[in-house]
Each structure stands twice: as structure tokens, then as C-alpha cells.
Design brief:
Layout lengths: L21 H18 L26 H26 L10 H18 L3 E9 L1 H8 L1 H18 L5 E6 L2 E7 L3 H16 L2 E4 L2 E4 L1 E9 L5 H19 L3 E2 L12 E2 L4
Antiparallel strand pairs: 1-3, 1-6, 2-3, 4-5, 7-8
Helix pairs in contact: 4-5, 5-6
Length: 267
């Protein structure tokens, strides 16, 4: 008879797992929490609002506004230059007579001297003093004196060329710059200016009054100096004034009606 195979020993029953110690249990629980936290997705953060660009005021120099701004600046610059020219002109012009004052005339005179020296040109300077202006001012007021000065200035302008210069040196003294004249012609012109002013007649408060002028001449050549020429003409004017002091005139300065000629002072 075949032998019965011996069966193996019966498998031992599985033993119950031993309960974990509190220390081990805590370690495992902490590990499980760590693993669980590593796989958990983080909550999304709220998105930050986009930064808005700072709105800056546009300056006039930006491309869109450049042309109008430049045009405006050019207009303002032109006005400023015109105003400067007006101020410079007023500084060199006699406000009463609208001719160069001493400052303006001396500037033109220095230019003329430079031209005469450089190009060996010729000219003449005539200085005139209005006779009897002070008695007219004293008797009839400065308004009457201003009228006399205006008439004298207008007469001088009519007697010279457009290239010549007439100016007021101050008070009752005038100056005339003449171009391209010989000494003979310059002295003849001075005499004709005296005669033209002597013919002026005025009526103030119903009384007839005459003025007059005394003229001195300085000849301008390549060696002329502005200051010396003015002194020379001024000295010659006072010599001429002394010569005319007792000349006969058709009217009296005290305002009497015209009648027989009388000798009057020309101061």
C-alpha cells in the first residue's frame, strides 16, 4: 500500500499585533500629517490689481502741442524785441520835439566822425542857441516857449537834407550834422539857418513876438575828434551870439506890436 505523504505541520495561527507604544504612535501620526500636507495643494492667493499708469499733465513741449507753443513763443519774442527797440529809441529821442536828444545826437555824431576818418570824407557841425527863449518863457509861460522850440526844430529840418541830422542838445541849444560840405558852404548854411529862424514870428496873448538863433560852426575832416568839434562849435556859437547881441530886429521881445525897427537884447 502506498504510503500516505505526511502533511506538514499546520501553520501557526497569526498572532495579534502588539499595541504600539505611545512614542511610536505619535511619530507615525506626525509622519502621516507631514505626508498629507506635502500632497495638499496650497490655496491660491488673491491676484493683485494691475498698477495703473500715473497720469501726468502734458506739457506744451509734447509733440502734439509743440508747434502752437513755438509759434506763441515767437510772437512773444517779437513783441519783446519791438518793445526794447521802442525803449531804446525813446532814450535817444527828445519827447517834445521828436528829434534826437543829446545822447542820440552824440551817438550819431561819433559814428559820423568814424566814417569821416575811415573814408576821408568831409562834413560840418553847426551848434545853434535860440535867442530870447528865457524872456518868452518868463512873459508867456513854458507852453509858449515849447511852441517856439517846436517851430525852430521844424525850420531846421526843412533847411537840411534827409541824410543830415538835427538834434537838441538841451534847453534852447540845437545841433546840426551836415555831410560833404566845404568850409565856405558850411558857414553859408549856418547863416541861412539863422535867417530862417529870425523870420519866425509868434503871437502870444495878442502880442507879436520874434525869436532868433546864433550859430557856430566846426569843420569835420579826417583828423576831427567828437569832443573837440563840439567844443569848437559851441565856442563859435557864443562868439556869434555876442556879435548879434545888439543887431536890429523887426519885433520886440517884450510883445509890442511890430513897428519901427529897434535894437533889442538877444539873450
Amino acid at each position: 500500500m502506498p504510503r500516505k505523504k505526511k502533511t506538514g505541520a499546520a501553520a501557526p495561527k497569526s498572532a495579534k499585533p502588539k499595541a504600539a507604544t505611545p512614542k511610536v504612535a505619535n511619530f507615525k501620526a506626525a509622519k502621516r500629517r507631514k505626508n498629507a500636507g506635502g500632497t495638499r495643494k496650497a490655496a491660491p492667493r488673491p491676484a493683485r490689481p494691475a498698477k495703473q499708469p500715473i497720469q501726468r499733465p502734458r506739457s506744451p513741449a509734447e509733440p502734439n502741442d509743440a508747434k502752437p507753443a513755438i509759434r506763441k513763443l515767437r510772437i512773444q519774442l517779437a513783441r519783446a524785441r519791438k518793445r526794447i527797440e521802442e525803449l531804446e529809441a525813446s532814450a535817444d529821442t527828445d519827447f517834445l520835439l521828436d528829434i534826437p536828444n543829446r545822447r542820440g545826437f552824440e551817438r550819431e555824431f561819433r559814428r559820423a566822425i568814424s566814417y569821416i576818418k575811415r573814408y576821408h570824407a568831409s562834413g560840418a557841425l553847426i551848434v545853434l542857441d535860440v535867442d530870447r527863449l528865457k524872456p518868452i518863457n518868463d512873459a508867456f509861460g513854458h507852453t509858449a516857449g515849447d511852441q517856439v522850440l517846436k517851430a525852430v526844430a521844424a525850420t531846421l529840418l526843412l533847411q537840411v537834407r534827409s541824410s543830415d541830422v538835427v538834434g537838441r542838445l538841451g534847453g534852447d541849444e540845437f545841433a546840426v550834422l551836415l555831410w560833404n560840405l566845404s568850409e565856405t558852404d558850411a558857414r553859408a548854411k549856418a547863416a541861412s539857418l539863422e535867417e530862417a529862424i529870425d523870420r519866425l514870428s509868434f503871437t502870444f496873448r495878442g502880442r507879436h513876438v520874434a525869436a532868433g538863433a546864433s550859430a557856430g560852426v566846426a569843420i569835420l575832416g579826417p583828423h576831427a575828434e567828437a569832443g573837440r568839434a563840439l567844443e569848437e562849435a559851441d565856442s563859435a556859437m557864443y562868439v556869434r551870439k555876442a556879435q548879434r547881441r545888439h543887431e536890429i530886429t523887426p519885433q520886440q521881445v517884450d510883445g509890442a506890436a511890430s513897428g519901427p525897427a529897434r535894437r533889442v537884447s538877444r539873450d
